[in-house]
Fold this sequence. Notes:
- By secondary structure, the chain is mainly β.
- It is 0% helix and 50% strand.
- It is built from no helices and eleven strands.
- A hairpin with a 6-residue loop joins β4 and β5.
- It starts with a strand and ends with a strand.
- The model has no long low-confidence stretch (mean pLDDT 97).
Amino acid sequence: VQLVESGGGLVQPGGSLRLSCAASGFTFSSYAMSWYRQAPGKERELVARISSTGISTYYTDSVKGRFTISRDNAKNTVYLQMNILKPEDTAVYYCRSSYRDSWGQGTQVTVSS
């Protein structure tokens, strides 16, 4: 199983980023996928989750209306579109699959002027 995140970087407050997580080694379309984040000195937290079909989504309160999770089962990829970014969104973002509780290596997102 391999999950590879990309798309992180440095962005100014109010800006946008789109994270991608490319999956391999399992039947991607059969499993829910999630994005987590961990800021320095804080516990890892669930940001968003999407069902295997993409019909059902969940967002933590702090990102509702700003972030959108989506997936392309034909490309074995899950996305996190992040808009109106705030300094408190700064963290390492991780992709997680419900298949064997698999995690990616993370991608850094820094929101700063």
